[in-house]
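Lecture 7 notes: from sequence to structure.

We start with a single chain of 297 residues. Read the sequence below before looking at the structure.
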Amino acid sequence: MQRRTIEETLRLGAVQLNAVVDVRQGDYFAAAAETADLRGRGMMAWVLNPAGELVLTIGEAANIPLPAELPLTEQTLDMFSANELALRLYAMPLSEGAQTLGTIIVALPLAESQAFLRQIALGLVITIPVVLLLSVAGGFILAGRALSPITAITETARQVSAADMTQRLDLALPDDEVGQLAATFNDMLERLERSFRRERQLTADVSHELRTPLGLLKTQLSLARARPRDAATLLGMMADMEGDVDRMTHLVEQLLTLTRLEQREDRSAAPVGLDDMLGELVRQLKPLAEGANVVLS
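Now the structure, written as tokens:
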């Protein structure tokens, strides 16, 4: 890993030097300002002309003799200089367009490169934990924001009861998965509220509608027990009571039919004969009317 990093540094340095070396009528130049970055990183370089003669030096290469053994083109070579300095060399053609103008030999002292790599490693040791901590903190924040609608749904579900089905989610959410979940939850609560409302209404309707025939039935039973009566009278009263029971049975069947129709999503309207309905209503109310001396027709 370290070797590849050093080789990449040398290669990039050679590419940078190839861009700043200027060749004019056999003379080779490189402005000090344009090579300051290379020198600042501890790199040095020798530039050879096509005949292999040294024509330009960069950085400390001016104080170090050109090594006798040079690397092949675009290859690296580790060696010691004449003053026993450990170097890693990299060779690259000096070119301008399709024309080759010489060879660039860049070098990096291994001691400095190792120090450079240690700095990189130290930076990674410091940076990676910081990045991980920031990532974890950011993850908690994002998770909290993402789960807050779920928490609201849970709290609303806990507050819903048969006595209060009016609870709804009032969240400004985008049309994503969580937003669709909240909308579906509200729709479910709406359907449940309608169902409970119908159930309570049915209970109230049954109680109201059965009160009259049950009252008539109780009255007739009380009259039958009030004093002795002959068989014909008792049979007549029993026939009236049977009629009241039939009316209650018919009423319960009608209420059940109405409930089933309300629960069907595909229910459709149909004409109803009002004369038959009104005739049945008159028949059911006739005993009450006779007791109050009222004539129904």
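The domain at 2-110 is CATH 3.30.450.140 (Beta-Lactamase). Keep this in mind for problem set 3.
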